[in-house]
Amino acid sequence: MGEITRRKFISSSLLGIAATAILPKLGFTENFNINNKNKLKGEINKMAYEWKFNPRPYSDEEAKSLLKDVISPETSDWHYNTHHKGYVTFLNNIEKELESADRSKANGNYSHVGELKRRLTWNHGGTVLHDVYWEVLGGDGDVSKGADIKAAIENEFGSFDKWKEDFKATATAAKLSGWGVLVYDMLYSKRLLNVLVDEHHYGAIWGGIPLIACDVFEHAYYHKDGPGRAKYIDNFINNLNWSRINDRFVKFVK
Hints:
Shape: globular
Structural class: mainly alpha
CATH superfamily of the largest domain: Iron/manganese superoxide dismutase, C-terminal domain
Number of strands: 3
Number of helices: 10
Helix content: 55-70%
CATH class of the largest domain: Alpha Beta
Number of domains: 3
Radius of gyration: 28 Å
Largest sheet: 3 strands, antiparallel
CATH architecture of the largest domain: 3-Layer(bab) Sandwich
Order of helices and strands: HHHHHHHEEEHHH
């Protein structure tokens, strides 16, 4: 190795050693690591959100017995493991498609991104309301087991029977695909309201927390009661688990 080359090598090595010692003190290597971490974090955040298919508070076999006065054993399986699960599956499919959807082609008449957004709302509503539907069923209809929600209902509606009359009328009046929902209007009036929802989203109240959700889509009751929607709603109310409803009220409202 020539003298000039040797000098360059020694000089470069010394500069490298000095940089290794000095840069951490100046924060450069730390910033480099932070930037890399932030980059990785950004990449992780771009992954599609995964919606969960939540379990019911009872097993599939228990459901056949606990809900037999409301829906047929077959419906307790089909409704949960096919219909309800389907909403969650399509929510996740939509999330993935939205990652690559062309926003520049959004249009009020038709666009792929517009349809994805519409079906996101539909499937989201179906997922949330079915979660509540299964959660509040499987009881004996004894409202005294939910002291807090009972007092709130009586304060708002005058009596439990008046609430029940209004709730039944609300659910009965929904379209052939709809819901009757007891909600707490958190953002506006701070009241309990019986809300009529057509499909899964038309008529829903912004900021309304669903406490009870009665599915009156025909697939919910036809296998057992045929066109007897009113009978099904009576059986639904008589099967409510007011202890779990009370827990939901305390968790989200009180």
